[in-house]
Amino acid sequence: MQADALDAILGDGTALAATRTSGEGPPGRLPIDDATLRQAPSGHLFGMTQNAGMGWRASEIARDPYLIVSTQGGLRAGDGQPVALGLHTGHWEIDRLVRAAAETFAGHGGLPFSVMCSDPCDGRTQGTTGMFDSLPYRNDAAMTMRRLVRSLPTRRGVLGIATCDKGLPAMMLALAGCGDLPGVIVPGGVTLPARGAEDTAKVQTIGARYAHGLIDLEHAAAMGCRACGSPGGGCQFLGTAATSQVIAEALGIALPHSALAPSGEPVWLDMARRSALALMRLAQAGTPLSAILTRKAVENALVVHAAFGGSTNLLLHVPAIARAAGLTAPTVADWTAANRATPRLVDALPNGPRHHPTVQVFMAGGVPEVMLHLRDMGLLHLDIPTVSGRTVGENLEWWEHSQARRIARQRLRELDGVDPGNVIMGPDAARAAGLTSALVFPVGNLAPDGSVIKATSIDPSVVDADNVYRHTGRARVFASEHEAIAAIKAKGEGAVVAGDVVVLAGCGPAGTGMEETYQLTSALKYLPWGKHVPVLTDARFSGVSTGACIGHVGPEALAGGPIGRLRDGDLVRIVIDRNTLQGSIDFIGTDEANPLSPEEAAAVLASRPVHPAIAPHPKLPADTRLWAALQEASGGTWGGCVYDVDAIVETLRAGRAALAQRRAAGGD
């Protein structure tokens, strides 16, 4: 290696010539008195020293502190250009929201603090072992965020700024677990659609479409480059990221009309400023988040979720948020009741039929516009408080007659030529447009503990005239997503064909950390024959997934679930009634001419061993294995994949006692 190259790595010492060994301390004096010195914890005093050391004006360092917790990722120069990339657009420019909120706190007599716990990108990790960390990250991040909040003992309130699939759920869990404090969520917004380009959902299928000759290399390369119309914000569809924003607002812990704001736009920055003011007002009034995040708020969120036709991943997150707040978690019966009472009112990607991007949902009125319809249907609790300082009913009364509503809806007409009434509809218009309730929870001999499907996402052309989806087909069993996507992309021998039922087993928490399987569902959506191939898995789906895809099948294969006993060629019968919101998934034998009853077939399954290929993935991280064990002891996926400390401690004690008894009896 040449000397100059070696110097570039090891250094030549020139930087030492300008290096100091002491410095001037900050000017001024701490704003303290005799009582403070005698009575305050040393940590409070040293905290003021640190505040001065970081350069804040000494005369102001005893102001009321407000903590901003964000999921900021990457590093941007002053002009917005990348210095170091983040993992996704959702956390890429929320430093601007942090700055706007901090300046608002400071301008109104507060002392702003900012900490960060960034988040992963589910889109980036699709089809990779990085997906094994996706869901476990949520619990870890929530714990870290709560530890950061507690590490500023004098904080008056917490402002949580986040978006995307795991960052925002983690933030909501964190704030819910700090319910003794005032708290406000600032949703990080959405990416603008790019003119003449594919959206960020469709563009994730360029590999599968190219493999089947549906697009050429030039198209794939061009569309893959152009999908994002702005450098920040969550994806443009109503997936988990956008649905989480909707839920934050529906719970009353984010300001009205804050969910789905276009990242980087003036209304987005204004929302951060107003959220900071709202938090200061809550702190002055002594209103903790626990006064807002109540059981009635959760019930409102379930109804709003149904009206939006939101992501099935919220079945994991809403119960977890409720548990973190010390509330009873909603059950499958609660979700079903909400969906039976509530028609889908929102036409957005990926549900259709017109597939509006999320920014158009925002401009059509967003969450408060949907809640106006739900109010008129008598489906909301209107008397409960929100972080605006007003009740839900008062917020809606303001929105209905506001200038903001008029401007937003008119802007949508002017810029995009879109009628807001075609994006967010009343119940009669929604029914006329063919929108139906979203979630169904099928049971059967393959899912004794239940499963879930977004029934609205099934292609209407494969649904019978009575609005019931029926499919009986041969199972194609895969123990890894890699093998399944290879068979979907393949042609000829071994390829998945129309009529098959793709079964992906062993991919629940114990197998892969309950990975998302958007690779499969997105590929099938954009292949001409894909609508004739349902997917059945103990894993989960991206919020943008469409088609007859049934996930969260319980018990998972590695916990003895019957799905793990299926074999290639087995007959699987699926029935999803989109009227009654009931469904079933059953193994019915191997002979089409003489199908078994579900009970007879269940006995056959019980006599079989687990499929020989099903095992925990060899690259499953040890910390994900630990997460899987802890959440299973706490109620599992249908309990929200939470950590129930009491249940875990009880299990550990019982295990230690059993081990002690075995050792005393002479066991190993």
Automatic annotation (TrEMBL):
Gene Ontology cellular component annotations, sorted alphabetically: cytosol
Domain annotation Dihydroxy-acid/6-phosphogluconate dehydratase C-terminal: ranges: 438-586
One Pfam family in the UniProt entry: ILVD_EDD_N
EC number assigned by the record: 4.2.1.9
Highest taxon above the source species: Bacteria
Domain annotation Dihydroxy-acid/6-phosphogluconate dehydratase N-terminal: ranges: 87-395
InterPro entries: Dehydratase_YjhG/YagF, Dihydro-acid_dehy_C, DiOHA_6PGluconate_deHydtase_CS, ILV_EDD_C, ILV_EDD_N, IlvD/EDD_N
Keywords, comma-separated and alphabetical: Lyase
Any one GO MF annotation of this record: dihydroxy-acid dehydratase activity
Gene3D superfamilies per record: IlvD/EDD C-terminal domain-like
Family: Belongs to the IlvD/Edd family.
Protein name per UniProt: Dehydratase, YjhG/YagF family
Origin species: Pseudoxanthomonas suwonensis (strain 11-1)
